[in-house]
Write a structure and sequence with these properties.
Layout: H1 2-25, H2 35-57, H3 62-89, H4 92-104, H5 109-125
Length: 126
């Protein structure tokens, strides 16, 4: 029961974080914040989502939390590469790839996919 409660609370926090990140800091044109502030908020939201997931999956088998952190580390690295590439090329395609990576991994979908993966692996072991 406590495990389900933690999952539901974590999911609600990730949904709220994702919504606020996209609605209030999504584009420079729709808010009054400086672009640098937007980028910091995006990174904080991304890291908070990764931390919430790790906190949630740490009580599962070790490979689950390692896979979660590895996935978010790889996405963070890819995001940094796109930011550097965009700084050099100013390509709109590169900018959209970076934005897509950031948005997809701040959303609740990866969290839900991991939950489904955990449930399926537990059922297969029975």
């Amino acid at each position: 029961m406590q495990r389900n409660f933690l999952f539901i609370i974590s999911l609600i926090v990730i949904i709220a974080l994702s919504w606020a990140n996209v609605d209030y800091f999504g584009t420079v044109k729709t808010n009054a914040f400086d672009p640098a502030v937007n980028q910091v908020i995006h990174i904080v939201a991304f890291l908070a989502t990764a931390a919430i997931g790790y906190f949630n999956w740490r009580s599962e088998e070790r490979w689950v939390s390692q896979l979660w952190i590895g996935l978010y580390a790889a996405v963070l690295l890819a995001f940094v590469v796109t930011v550097i590439t965009f700084g050099i090329t100013h390509s709109e395609v590169v900018k959209r790839i970076g934005t897509g990576l950031r948005n997809r991994f701040t959303e609740p979908l990866p969290f839900l996919v991991f939950y489904i993966l955990i449930v399926l692996t537990k059922r297969l072991k029975q």
